Amino acid sequence: MAKKILTTPIKAEDLEDIKIGDIIYLNGHITTCRDVAHRRLIEAGRELPVDLDGGAIFHAGPIVRPIKDQEGKYEMVSVGPTTSMRMEKFEKEFIEETGVKLIVGKGGMGKGTMEGCEKFKALHCVFPAGCAVVAAETVEEIEDQNWMDLGMPETLWTCRVKEFGPLIVSIDTHGGNLFEKNKVIFNEKKEKAYAEIIPHVSFIK
Amino acid sequence: MKKQQAVAKMTDVMAKFVSYTGKILPDDVYAKLEELRSKETSELATTIYDTMFENQTLAKKLDRPCCQDTGVLQFWVKCGSKFPLIGEVEALLKEAVIEATVESPLRHNSVETFDEYNTGKNVGKGTPTVFWEIVPDSDTCEIDTYMAGGGCSLPGKAMVLMPGAGYEGVTEFVLEVMTTYGLNACPPLLVGVGVATSVETAALLSKKALFRPLGTHNENANAAKMEQLLEDGINSIGLGPQGMSGNYSVMGVNIENTARHPSTIGVAVNVGCWSHRKGHIIFDKDLNYTITSHKEVEL
Q1: Are B211 and B87 in a shared domain?
Q2: Chain mean pLDDT for chain A
Q3: What are the DSSP E strand ranges found in chain A?
Q4: Which pairs count as long-range contacts for A90-98, CB under 8 Å and 24+ apart, including other chains?
Q5: Across B266-275, average pLDDT
Q6: Domain Fe-S hydro-lyase tartrate dehydratase alpha-type catalytic spans what residues (chain B) (predicted)?
Q7: What is the pLDDT of residue A1?
Q8: Contact criterion met (CB < 8 Å) for A133 and B167
Q9: Residue among B168, B222, B238 whose CB faces A189 most closely
């Protein structure tokens, strides 16, 4: 099967046929954006210094280092996803305000993000955690950095990426949520496993 | 060798070894991941595993930490009472972490509690963590190293059950952690279970269990049986790599135990993520060392 690759700027119709559990990749631009950036936009009402309309964000706090002899230029050493659920409180409004189309992170997100993704047409995807070198290697260049006052992990690093992925779709534009769906299945199987184990562990007689 | 030189030598070896364990997974973990990869059938699970292996190859080639969270360093020290540097070990391990943090580089993961600032050196009050076991009359020093990341530390849980809950209660406790927090702790997990009297004895054993080589079993037949039952049971939940579903869930379940008070069953769970960065090194009295966890290592 051919690789499904999205390219920024992403349009709503590009996401139409994508479903939870699909594996996609990204070409174009993605900006790291996590706790404080979300808070500044939604709670403090500050304008984001990056135009995210049709764009992508990455819930991540990377390790970057300055490139020698090139002032204001940085290279990506290591970047991995952080727990997306921390941004749940802000994400629906964030999608509405910014027009972002792709959110990449770790673990599932909740009801607000599901509503935001369905109403304003966006996806939440998971990049495999613990694969920080793979992710860093897809970054061709850090083109811009904003809000550096937030420190290295929270700065908005805008990266040009080539075939960034695999990105596993966890929330689609049709109200699907892979983690919520799996949770039901896992809990059923857990109950079954418990019932099978207990007859064999009556060690206290 | 003068003491000062000896301390410098052991510090240097430990700094290099710590740095190495952040880049290369131990042999038993790597082999188990390969085995689990070969048993997955869905495109989703195999794609995730392929990315994990590609990441390990790249980390080695580019000489970078394989995961950006290089954890808080923890050391389980089994030290002979006659090991010449017994009094220096704890301080030199701290120094070794500072060196590795610069050399590797490791992420700055030590935040002073209450004052709430990052020390920027990866060490602080009581970090790295050093757990001690003194071996009478021995002159060697065995050290298990571990990078305790945020993701894999988060599911940790301990409680004291009433004996009426029995080992059925222990089973329920372990399974519950798997489908709540374990899911997000980057499976396939290594599950460490401690069974003892109180929270801290159980918790300490659950950490010790994470150092035991994969595929080994508790020497008590019932405990070993329970390890297998839990491993099969958790695998049947099918968490898959990254908790995104698959045919398996865990690299193993290791139980460590002691006797307990008749009125309590202390139980604790600790998990290691798929990127289980542990190491094992043994020093003799002349500081010749043997590394058992990584056979291809050259420091």
Answers
A1: no
A2: 95
A3: 4-7, 23-32, 56-58, 63-66, 74-78, 102-105, 123-126, 139-146, 156-171
A4: A90/A38, A90/A39, A90/A41, A90/A42, A90/A43, A91/A38, A91/A116, A92/A116, A93/A42, A94/A38, A94/A41, A94/A42, A95/A120, A95/A122, A96/A120, A97/A41, A97/A42, A98/A41, A98/A48, A98/A52, A98/A53, A98/A55
A5: 98
A6: 12-281
A7: 61
A8: no
A9: B238
Of A23, A80, A185, the CB nearest to B68: A80
pLDDT at A63: 81
Cβ distance A130 to B58 less than 8 Å, yes or no, reads no
Of the partner residues B44, B59, B67, the one whose CB lies closest to the CB of residue A21: B44
Residue pLDDT, tens place only, B69-105? 899 999 999 999 999 999 999 999 999 999 999 998 8
Which DSSP string corresponds to B209-260? HTTSPTT---SSHHHHHHHHHHHHHHHHH---GGGS--S--EEEEEEEE---
Average pLDDT of A3-15? 96
d(CA B227, CA B223): 6
The answer as to whether A203 is a domain residue is no
Q: Is it the case that residue A54 has pLDDT exceeding 90? A: yes
Is there a contact between B67 and A132 if contact means CB atoms under 8 Å apart? yes
Tokens for A125? 């995807």
- Do A185 and B238 make contact, defined as CB atoms within 8 angstroms? yes
Question: Which candidate in A109, A184, A197, A204 is best for mutational testing of the B interface (most B CBs within 10 A)?
Answer: A197
Q: Averaged over A145-172, what is the pLDDT?
A: 94
User: Is A200 among the catalytic positions?
Assistant: no
Residue B34, exposed/middle/buried by CB under 10 A (0-12, 13-18, 19+)?
Answer: exposed
Cα distance between residue B292 and residue B299, in whole Å: 13
Domains identified in chain A, total number: 1
Q: Is the ipTM, as predicted for this complex, more than 0.90?
A: yes
pLDDT at A23: 96
CATH number of domain containing A79: 3.20.130.10
pLDDT at residue B1 is higher than 80? no
Query: Inter-chain contact B68–A23, Cβ cutoff 8 Å?
Result: no
Residue A199 lies in a domain: no
In a domain, A142, yes or no: yes
